[in-house]
Amino acid sequence: MVKQEIIKFREFRMKRKYEILLVSFLVLLFGDVVVGPNFNSTPILIFQNVLASTIIFYGKRKWRYPLMLLLIFLASLFFATFLINIPKIGLLFFSVYIIYFLFLSVEVYRQILKTKDVDIGMIAAVLCGFIILGLIGGYVFSIIEIMHPNSFNNLTEGLGGMSDLIYFSFITIISIGYGDITPATDIAQKMSLFFGLIGYFYGVVVIGIIMGKYISQKHSK
């Protein structure tokens, strides 16, 4: 009986993996709004997302052990940034985190492009791909700020600056551009332009491909 329940749970988890991942990303982005500013929820929010995203690689043996080592290393660096105030550790943490998200983004984008049937799971995957793009942009901007301080104007001091840059990344790829945070150095401006172009490309090409498959699917039925 217990074994059957475990099998059913695994089947449900694999069938709804992109919906689970999307919910995890939404918790990562907006979870601190729920718990309030008095509680440092960042470690919990990050690790729930990392654990949830491992479902995407379930069954892929060639990626299992490299990703496991990467996650252990990432966890060690994350806690080290709180225990030891050394900027290079923070830089290494963001670099490893980007590598992890590159693995994740490749797998998500690969599934989006190779799929033939467009359902709620695939729509969730497209949204996950967009959120991943915004997060990668935020981490890249954070690395720039660590390596070249004051590359962005109007940032909050400390870890709040990272949240500001993730926010800046999303409003850049969405092409809103409120102007409350602005790039101040040449490299910050060039990378802002780069992610703006990538965001535009994603909106036009990737979503266009999915819509084309959806229309084709409707006609075939």
From TrEMBL:
Domain of life: Bacteria
InterPro entries linked: K_chnl_dom
Keyword Membrane assigned: yes
Limits of the Potassium channel domain: 144-211
Residue ranges of the TM segments: 20-36, 42-58, 65-84, 90-109, 121-144, 164-181, 193-215
Keyword Cell cycle: no
Matching Pfam families: Ion_trans_2 (PF07885)
Keywords noted in UniProt: Membrane, Transmembrane, Transmembrane helix
UniProt-listed SUPFAM superfamilies: Voltage-gated potassium channels
Protein name (Swiss-Prot/TrEMBL): Ion channel
Organism: Draconibacterium aestuarii
